Structure formats: C-alpha cells, structure tokens
Amino acid sequence: MITWVIKKFDALTPGELYVILRLRSEVFVVEQHCVFLDMDNKDQSCYHLMGWQADQLVAYTRLMPPGISYPEPSIGRVVTSPAARGSGAGKLLMEKSIAETERLFGKVSVKIGAQLYLKKFYASLGFEQSSEVYDEDGIDHIEMIRR
C-alpha cells in the first residue's frame, strides 16, 4: 500500500527533501550514469508528489505549473525506487500525478520530456509524441503531450 503526499517546496521538511534528492540522485545520476545538475532551480516553484511505503520513499514526481518548463503544466523527475520496480508503483505514480496536475491546474494539456525507451509506457497513459528525438545529458528523449 502506497501513501501519497503532495507538498509545495516550502512545505517539505528537510528530511523529505533529503530523501527526494537522494532517490533522484540514486536513479538519475548513479543508476543511469548521467552526470547532470539535478537541482535546476525549478523545485522551488513546483509541487512534489511522494509515494511512501512505511518510511521508504518508493515513488516521486515533480508537478510543474504552466510556464516553468513548457507553456503547459508538466510532470517531471518521474522516479521509482529500484526496490519498488515491477510492483506497478510507476503506473500508480503517473496516474496519481495526472490526477493531481488536473486538480491543481485544471483539465488542460500536460507536457512531459520523456526518456525515449519509456514512450510506450507514457502512451499507455494517454501521452502522444510531440517532438523529434533529442539528446538530454546523453540519453535520448522526446516531448510528449496528453490532451
């Protein structure tokens, strides 16, 4: 059972922020061998959706208001703990992220920058490719939109 918590940046406790940044670093930097600056000065403007099992953060996304990365609201930094993979946590995370984005910003289009290998996963949630493939930090990405 996953307990979902959503908070604005200023409401995060130091412990929550540490666990979020640790999970993002564990997956995006260490696991994916991607050297990049994760702290991009966008976190402060965003909502942070956390999925907890007991005291472990197993799923996380950053919900961005319109105008931060795209004209549309966006869901980013989508990450599941390696320990939770294969459990359906990723799909639950995205379903909850879409629902929270609609609650916060209305029933509007949502845009994401997706790693290319996850195209089918995001398509299963209603996203359609809206750009050519581009390189971001050595990983092929595409923009996708859910109307």
Structural write-up:
It is built from three helices and eight strands; from the N terminus they run βαβββαβαβββ. The chain has helices spanning 14-31, 89-105, 119-123; strands at 3-8, 47-53, 56-64, 74-80, 110-115, 128-129, 134-136, 139-146. The protein is an alpha+beta fold and 147 residues long. A four-stranded antiparallel β-sheet has the order 1-2-3-4, with helices on both faces. Strands 5, 6, 7 and 8 form a four-stranded antiparallel β-sheet that branches. The chain has one domain: Gcn5-related N-acetyltransferase (GNAT) (Aminopeptidase). Strand 2 (47-53) and strand 3 (56-64) form a beta hairpin. The chain is 27% helix and 33% strand. The model has no long low-confidence stretch (mean pLDDT 96).
Predict the CATH topology: Aminopeptidase
The H-and-E topology, N to C, reads as EHEEEHEHEEE
- For the biggest β-sheet, the strand order reads 1-2-3-4
Structural class: alpha+beta
Q: Flag low-confidence runs.
A: none
- How large, in whole angstroms, is the Cα Rg? 14 Å
The first-level CATH class is given as Alpha Beta
- Helix count? 3
Share of helix among residues?
25-40%
Concise synopsis of the structure shown:
With 147 residues, this protein is of the alpha+beta class.
SSE layout and pairings?
Layout: E1 3-8, H1 14-31, E2 47-53, E3 56-64, E4 74-80, H2 89-105, E5 110-115, H3 119-123, E6 128-129, E7 134-136, E8 139-146
Antiparallel strand pairs: 1-2, 2-3, 3-4, 5-8, 6-8, 7-8
